[in-house]
């Protein structure tokens, strides 16, 4: 890429009617031209330099509160003000007074005592106040003699606290939105020179820009915190510890993964656009490829693509297609999961609500959601009670596990916890009622909800998928088997696989062993348990 060269006219880059130019000209006319003595020049220069230095201090301040403190520490001694406060917008009709700073202890004691006597709240209405006028006009307001003020509150503090002049300067943030005002009070009448008011306006401008930046950063941090809390809620802590480096931009794993993704895209683009030269050996019908990629993986992909192009050629006969090149994409690190591991002897619990589809069609969505919430919140409590890990919910389905990342000493203990959880899930379902209707009956009635439960045990592959809103999931044949157990179940009963039953065979109440045909599977040996029968 080249370098852009811009030639600026001698008269300057900014147009003559620029707001910045206008402000500079006004400052020259109203302030600089009226400085007559060396002492006044030194004072103006000292205050101007101090205000300019404030910018870097505000940027270095860690948060919004610190910005107000930094600004007060400058203004109180620099302008010899008696009282400095910040009236910050609370809502459309109120402001809140914060970070009051005074010049000496005499003022602090007197103002604190008078404030108590006045019984004034720090939250005040905007209406009929100088701050309200600043919010309305978005301009600085100056009252040189509070005893003659149009606002009753200012006349009152003149008599009660001896405040004679008040300057209120708007703090504007993004797109000139009013965020509050700097309110400076003095015992002296007409205490603020024009150049002081201009410099304080500059301070307010710097303050507005910096508090907006702090607020945006705080909002981003809050958003990141919420995202991290959601992530921790969805993904087990042991997995979080293994994958959180992939979101840390300073980690080696993050940089390696980002580089791999970019390389994958770059290679794919190059493969799609590059020219290939194919030569054929008639004896073996095997393609030989010559191109700029030396890696065998990409050579095979080129061969595959060119073979597919040549299949429709008139002279394309006797071509042998090697489909092994198709695994190039799966071999790419772009498609590697953030985390995956095999875990043995995991007990998988599947449940769903009997007749849920009919309920969803005949009820309002919000009513269905409230029903599911009522049931699943009970299941969540049971998970904590039995040491079971809730994995996810999909519609009316609830998936939980034991022995995934739990501290069970053996698979038998994990299986007993899973079975006790399943029993209590059915008991808890009896506490949730649903409105039932039947053709021929005039009025509906309430009946207990029913669920089916299926349990299986075996090895699973646990993994985290996705770059955005990553999701923790289980994969493998045994997960499907657990789901089939639930699908082949009966209302308010627990169907378990033969493998799971072998771990809890000492539990009483099992029905006879039964071979059940599973969808997309062969017949599987199962056992059925009726917790409500054994409970009665």
From the structure above, extract its key features.
single chain; 536 residues; alpha+beta; 8-stranded mixed sheet; 6-stranded antiparallel sheet; 18 strands
Structure description:
By secondary structure, the protein is of the alpha+beta class. The chain is 45% helix and 23% strand. The strands form four sheets. Strands 9, 10, 11, 14, 15, 16, 17 and 18 form an eight-stranded mixed sheet that branches. A six-stranded antiparallel sheet has the order 3-2-1-6-5-4, sandwiched between helices. Helix 2 (38-60) runs antiparallel to helix 3 and helix 2 packs parallel to helix 7 (194-234). The protein is elongated and about 110 Å long. The model is unreliable at 117-121, 268-298 and 314-333 (pLDDT under 50).
Q: What is the helix tally?
A: 17
Nearest-integer average pLDDT = 77
How much of the sequence lies in strands comes to 15-25%
Anisotropy-based shape = elongated
- Helix vs. strand class: alpha+beta
- The tally of strands reads 18
Radius of gyration: 37 Å
Give a quick account of the main beta sheet: strands, pairing sense, barrel closure.
8 strands, mixed
Measured between the Cα atoms of the first and last residue, the distance is 81 Å
């Amino acid at each position: 890429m080249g370098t852009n060269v811009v030639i600026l006219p001698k008269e300057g880059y900014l147009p003559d009617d620029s707001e910045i130019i206008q402000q500079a000209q006004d400052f020259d006319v109203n302030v600089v031209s009226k400085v007559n003595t060396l002492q006044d020049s030194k004072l103006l220069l000292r205050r101007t330099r101090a205000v300019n230095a404030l910018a870097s201090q505000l940027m270095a301040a860690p948060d919004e509160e610190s910005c107000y403190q930094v600004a007060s520490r400058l203004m109180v001694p620099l302008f010899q003000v008696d009282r400095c406060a910040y009236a910050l917008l609370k809502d459309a009709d109120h402001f809140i007074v914060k970070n009051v700073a005074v010049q000496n202890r005499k003022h602090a004691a007197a103002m604190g005592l008078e404030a108590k006597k006045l019984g004034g709240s720090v939250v005040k209405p905007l209406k009929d106040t100088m701050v309200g006028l600043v919010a309305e006009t978005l301009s600085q307001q100056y009252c040189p003699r509070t005893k003659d003020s149009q606002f009753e509150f200012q006349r009152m503090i003149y008599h009660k606290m001896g405040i004679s002049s008040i300057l209120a300067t708007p703090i504007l943030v993004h797109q000139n939105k009013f965020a509050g005002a700097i309110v400076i009070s003095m015992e002296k009448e007409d205490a603020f020179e024009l150049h002081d008011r201009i410099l304080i306006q500059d301070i307010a401008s710097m303050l507005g820009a910096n508090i907006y930046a702090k607020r945006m950063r705080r909002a981003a941090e809050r958003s990141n915190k919420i995202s991290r809390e959601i992530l921790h809620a969805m993904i087990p802590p042991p997995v979080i510890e293994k994958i959180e480096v992939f979101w840390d931009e300073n980690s080696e794993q993050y940089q390696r993964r980002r580089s791999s993704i970019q390389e994958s895209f770059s290679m794919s683009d190059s493969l799609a656009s590059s020219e290939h030269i194919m030569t054929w050996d008639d004896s073996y019908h095997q393609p030989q490829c010559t191109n700029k990629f030396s890696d065998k993986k990409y050579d095979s992909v080129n061969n595959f693509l060119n073979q597919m192009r040549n299949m429709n050629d008139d002279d394309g006969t006797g071509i042998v297609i090697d489909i092994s090149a198709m695994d190039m994409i799966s071999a790419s690190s772009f498609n590697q999961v953030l985390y995956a591991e095999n875990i043995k002897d995991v007990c998988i619990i599947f449940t769903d609500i009997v007749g849920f589809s009919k309920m969803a069609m005949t009820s309002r969505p919000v009513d269905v959601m409230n029903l599911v919430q009522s049931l699943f919140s009970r299941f969540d409590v049971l998970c904590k009670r039995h040491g079971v890990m809730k994995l996810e919910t999909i519609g009316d389905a609830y998936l939980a596990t034991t022995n995934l990342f739990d501290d069970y000493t053996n698979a038998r203990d994990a299986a007993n916890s899973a079975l006790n959880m399943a029993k209590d899930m059915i008991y808890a379902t009896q506490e949730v009622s649903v409105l039932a209707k039947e053709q021929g009956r005039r009025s509906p009635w309430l009946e207990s909800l029913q669920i089916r439960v299926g349990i299986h045990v075996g090895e699973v592959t646990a993994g985290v998928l996705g770059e955005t809103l990553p999701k923790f999931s289980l994969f493998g044949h045994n997960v499907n088997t657990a789901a089939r157990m639930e699908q082949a179940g009966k209302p308010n009963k627990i169907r378990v696989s033969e493998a799971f039953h072998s771990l809890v065979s000492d539990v009483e109440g099992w029905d006879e062993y039964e071979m059940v045909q599973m969808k997309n599977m062969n017949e599987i040996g199962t056992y059925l348990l009726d917790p409500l029968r054994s409970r009665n």
